[in-house]
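Input set for joint prediction.
Command: fold jointly, output tokens.
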Amino acid sequence: MSHLQRLPHVEPPSDRRVAVRVTNDALRQVRAGHPWLFDQSITSLGHDGAAGDLAVVFDQKRRFAAIGLLDPDSPIRVRILHAGAPRAIDDDFWIDRIGAALDRRGSLVDDPATTAYRCIHGENDGLPGLVVDRYADTAVVKIYTAAWLPHLPGVLDALVPLTGVDRVVLRGSRAVQGPRRAFAHPVALLGDLPDHPIGFAETGLQFEADVVHGQKTGHFLDQRENRALVGGLAGGGSVLDVFCCTGGFSVHAAAGGATEVHSVDLSQPALDTAKENMRRNSERVAAAAHRTTCGDAFDVLTSLARRGERYDVVVIDPPSFASRADQVGRALSGYRRLTELGLAVVRPGGMLVQSSCSSRVDEASFHTSIREAASESGHTLAEWRRTAHAIDHPVGFPEGAYLKTLFAQVDP
Ligand SMILES: C[S@@+](CC[C@H](N)C(=O)[O-])C[C@H]1O[C@@H](n2cnc3c(N)ncnc32)[C@H](O)[C@@H]1O
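tokens >
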């Protein structure tokens, strides 16, 4: 069965390209490498194409400027695959793009201690709206536009031999709008849809991911390096892991020699996986007492502070607080509140580790919000490290720089 036969209602890509004219400003941005063309910057479309049709952007002199994927139902009307000299979007193109993405990951792709990583990071790897995470021999695909659907066979024909995976799962996506909405549920594009979690290694520790039902693709791969840093800080201390999800920070802390690890999340299935992830490393985490609390992080932090509980390391890694520009102010208030609540449960001399994954919130504003919240609540922070993206989450355009983390010693 071809990959496409597993996708009901999806036709092969049309041979007919859609000619697109855009504003001068949009043309400049596309030529400078920006991957998105919004609907309001399009001045004419040759014909009404379908999602996934190839759209060719022409300049004022009718010269080829770029080519991308059309999505008539998305405000991002065209996602640019290539700008510059004319280029065909064919098997060689997918092989080149995916091969380059894997090369960018350097030694991570052959590291037996880490068998899960992001192979394709959308826009940042020149494949806008397409994410592929690898968990051992399973690849998990997430698409943020229906425009990818007709091109998945070409992508998989390149991806599978280049990575050697033997299973490919396409996760459903609410972002896929329009008539091709049959993808709210996961589909196996190669091999079976697993009815069990997939085991993998992360910097020498064992984990599992529910690649069918888990959040995102099953595990937050972007925090791998920060988790290893927390593991290095945790020895002999107590660690509070707030917004722990499947327990990445918790497991690293316990394996790093923490005496006590407390994992907090709103999702009971995520906490169940966190417990299982601890169990998978039982020999290395035996010295740590592990407990979990299912609840709202703001409430749990408030009640921990009220009870006088204190920790040597407090990790705060919330979900994105701003999906739109008008939510940035509210997001920054949320970060400030979390800083205050976190500082109330860190022992003097302990470490606060706070992250933001809101791409709308810039790095400077995030760090300022933490610093202001600390000083308003009477604490001093000594910054130890500011970290950003791991090698498998390259930043290819300004909006791609979403992850920011501060490590700071509290009241040193
Ligand atoms: C960015 S993920 C955290 C990733 C995690 N730290 C890791 O390393 O895998 C955000 C987590 O916050 C949880 N969450 C969302 N809202 C919450 C809330 N109000 N209180 C507690 N947890 C919440 C989600 O269930 C999700 O697991």
